Amino acid sequence: PPRGTRVVYTIGVDPQKGRPAAENVQPEVHAPRPMKHPPARAGPPRRAAIAQGDFLTGSIARDGERFGYVAQDNGDADLFVLPVSCAGGWIPPRGTRVTYTIGIDQQKGLPVAADVQPEGEPEWHEAPPRPHKRQAFAAPDFHHPDAFLTGMIARDGDKFGYVQQDSGEPDLFVLPAACDGGMIPPRGTRVVYTIGVDPQKGRPAAENVQPEVHAPRPMKHPPARAGPPRRAAIAQGDFLTGSIARDGERFGYVAQDNGEADLFVLP
User: Exposed e or buried b for every residue in 19-34, given b needs 16+ CB within 10 A?
Assistant: First the structure.
């Protein structure tokens, strides 16, 4: 279903990776039922064809040094974008309103965003100069609570995650070792943190990450954490609720209402 659709689903196993995956996915308004032979779907009404060169509008859904994605206002799937296709040769920060045209990836033959520029700026043909970098953060003073910033866990994982900053700055990379208890809090957890540097890449990273309800403190030797209370086990075949977080022709993800990690799903 399209991204944002409310759905019900069961938990199965990805046969290739052996990891949990969503199965029997169907809109929430339908009564849950097994889907051995799901009926063919007519799909949404077709939009008028978009010609290459027509300027469309959207916002930056993901920014990065090597690639990113544009969320389209017309509701179509997010478009892959390269820095070379953007004004100034860099992808604008996430959330920036932009205009763009539709191009074609020469290697894969898939649609991509081209001529990307902030909305309201004149159409460009030569890349304008890249803006100056923001002034770097001063080293935090661990003896004062003011040194701690606030935000929310945007992505949690066993190996790494990201902190969404209340300041509006780009999300910060974070490692479990930089978190209270040696594990990244669940996605959506409000946290406090300081700014450090990733020793491998030399880029800003979150450090001293801990739930906001805890008093900020240095974490040279963080104590072990028992972790969140365990939920009752979910048996395969039980129907749960959630919404489509990403839709695509080959795969997608379901955001679960129970707060667990998003589930991979195949068409």
Answer: ebbbbbbbebeeeeee
Q: Which of 161-165, 201-205, 229-233, 261-265 reaches the highest mean pLDDT?
A: 161-165
pLDDT tier at 222, thresholds 50, 70, 90: very low
Give CA–CA dist 4/244, Å, rounded: 5
Q: State how far the Cα of 98 lies from the Cα of 169, in Å rounded to an integer.
A: 18
- CA pair distance 162, 166, nearest whole angstrom: 13
Mean pLDDT to the nearest integer, 70-82: 91
CA angle 26/29/30 to nearest 5° reads 55
Coil vs helix vs strand at 88 = helix
Torsion of CA 143, 145, 148, 149, to 10 degrees: -160
Residue 200: predicted pLDDT: 76
CA distances from 145 to 141, 163, 171, 183, 240 (A): 8, 19, 21, 22, 41
Cα(135)–Cα(153) distance, integer angstroms: 24
Give the three-class secondary structure for 84. Answer: helix
229 closest CA partner among 177, 184, 193, 186: 186
Confirm if 7 and 1 have CB atoms less than 8 A apart: yes
- pTM higher than 0.85: no
